[in-house]
Amino acid sequence: MTPNTLEILPVRENMPRLLLKTALFLISGCTLTLARHAFTSSFLRLWLLIGGICCILFSLSLMVRVWQNVRLKGPIMTLSPTGIRVALGRHAFSQITWQQLCGFSLKQTRNQEWLLLHVINPEHVIKQVRRPTERLILRLHQQRTGTPFAIPTSVLTYPGDDLTQLLHTWHTRYYSQVAPQSSESNFPQADTPAH
C-alpha cells in the first residue's frame, strides 16, 4: 500500500467458533431428523422433522460463511487517486475510475446492509468481466440493488455510514484530477489476476 492509497480490509470471523457452530447445528439437524422414527406420535415426528431441517439449513448458511472467510484474501476495496479497485473474487478485481462513479449509498435488505457503488454504465461494466460466475453475481446485484457493485457492510472493517462519507470525500478530491479517458478505455479492466 502506497501513501496515496487506502485499503478496506475484510472482517474475519473467529474460524474455530464458526466451525464448531456449523458442526453442532449439522449434527443436531441430522439427529432430530433421524430420531423422529423412534416416536409414534405423528405430530411429534413432524415437529422433529421440521426442527431437523431448520438446523441443517442453518448449518448450510454457516458453511457459506466459512467458505466466504476462507475465500477473502487481501483488501475488498483499495482507494487510490485514479479510482477504486473492487475485489470480485479471490483472484479477480475490477478497477473503477472516479469518473465512472456517480454516487455511493447504503441499502438495507431483510437481514443485511449493503454498500452500493453506483456506476454510470452498469451493463458495460458487467460485460467486461470474463468469468461467468463473477458476471452472474454482478447481474444479481444489479437486479437486487440497482448496481453491480454491492458489498455487504458486515464484511467491512469500516461502519457503512463512515465508509460512505469517506468515499464521497475521495470522489470529490480526485474526480477532477484525473483526465477523462476515451469512451473505449474508460471502463474497468475486470477479472485481472491480483498480485
Walk me through this protein's architecture:
The protein is of the alpha+beta class and 195 residues long. It has two domains: 15-71; 77-174, no CATH class. Helix content is 44%, strand content 20%. The protein is built from five helices and seven strands. The chain has helices spanning 15-35, 42-71, 122-127, 132-145, 160-174, and strands at residues 6-8, 77-80, 83-89, 92-97, 101-108, 113-119, 149-152. A four-stranded antiparallel β-sheet has the order 1-2-3-4. It has a three-stranded antiparallel β-sheet with strand order 5-6-7, with helices on both faces. A hairpin with a 2-residue loop joins β3 (83-89) and β4. α1 (15-35) runs antiparallel to α2. The protein is elongated and about 75 Å long. The two termini are 12 Å apart.
**Rg computed from alpha carbons, rounded to a whole number of angstroms:** 21 Å
Helix content: 40-55%
Distance separating the two termini: 12 Å
What fraction of residues sit in β-strands? 15-25%
Order of helices and strands: EHHEEEEEHHEH
Tally of DSSP helical segments = 5
Major pleated sheet: 4 strands, antiparallel
Placed side by side, the strands forming the largest sheet appear as: 1-2-3-4
Provide mean pLDDT, rounded: 79
Low-confidence segments, given as residue ranges, are 179-195
